[in-house]
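#onboarding

Welcome to the new folks! Below is a worked example of what a typical request in this channel looks like: someone posts a single protein sequence, and someone else replies with the predicted structure as tokens. Don't worry about understanding the tokens yet, we'll cover that in week two.

Example request:
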Amino acid sequence: MEQFTSLLQRLDAGSILACMALMSFAKNILPPLPSDALMVFAGALAALGLVGLVPLVSVCALGSTAGFMMMFALGRYSGSSLQSRERVWIVPVRSVQVYVSAIETLFQRYGYGVIAANRFLGVKRVTVAFFAGLSGLSVWKTSACALCSAVAWSAVLVCVGYTLGEGWKHVLAYLSVYGSVMFVIVMVLLVWAFWKSPLSGTQTTVSNTSSPVSNSSSTA
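Example response:
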């Protein structure tokens, strides 16, 4: 983190914008990257006049949206090959299908609001993008919702840094707590969605329909 902040301090405005766009993009692929904390720090730099506030929010939002849509495209175009493969990356296909079913249940319940809220979901936003692509959602609606989400999140973090100035580090602890809380909330929602998903229902239906057969055979 210190290396990133010291680097940004030595750059001109154009280079700061380029670095923040790249970091926001890469965050969708490598979640551990500290792009959120860097947005707060970049906001503090904007307060010092080293970079423009509006351009900073814009490049962060566009970079984040581009990264989200790349993961969305990866999920969309890898979906057709799932049935013929045993694993997706290192995840068993059966687990992927269950996860997709749970995500689809959330989409049925909350619509594209899941996409609109994705930047506020912590680490799970990466899987939202990938599995949203697997679910076959509209590209245009998804990109519009992802952009709105990215603009809102980027504006919040940058403006917090802009307001705090040199005290920007005080918000990092709150970001960590927020990420942990959102992780728990999202996991609870996914567990609920799994039990409501078609795959879970199919398993229940199969077990129920098999009972009369066994009963009739035992009666015979």
